[in-house]
Specification:
The protein has one domain: Ribosomal Protein S8, Chain: A, domain 1. The chain has two helices and six strands; from the N terminus they run ββαββββα. With 99 residues, it is of the alpha+beta class.
Length: 99
């Protein structure tokens, strides 16, 4: 499973920040929809029961001659339980093969 950690924002609301590698935003968006989310803004905002996910592109990472796609996913939850439930399933979906 990918590493993730629930943090608290300035208002005390729980959120998770993930750097995505080799997982295009459209795939991450489809995972969020499978987990009960509704697309509000394609490849940018998905909202589910008790959570809201913001996606954004980032510059690719260079590894020698390879370029590895990169993006960011920020998920805010109404409460810690909703976020933990989502992340326990999403974390498995986001695992990518390497090597």
């Amino acid at each position: 499973m990918i590493p993730w950690r629930i943090e608290l924002d300035e208002q005390g609301a729980p959120w998770v920040h993930i750097e995505l590698r080799s997982a295009p935003l459209w795939i991450v968006e489809s995972y969020l929809v499978k987990l009960g989310g509704v697309i509000i803004e394609p490849e940018r905002l998905v909202r589910g029961q008790g959570w809201e996910a913001h996606l954004r592109d980032a510059e690719p990472v260079k590894l020698g001659a390879l370029l590895i796609g990169r993006g960011y996913l920020d998920i805010r939850g109404e409460d810690r339980g909703a976020l933990e439930a989502l992340m326990s399933r999403l974390g498995v979906m986001l695992m990518r093969g390497g090597g």
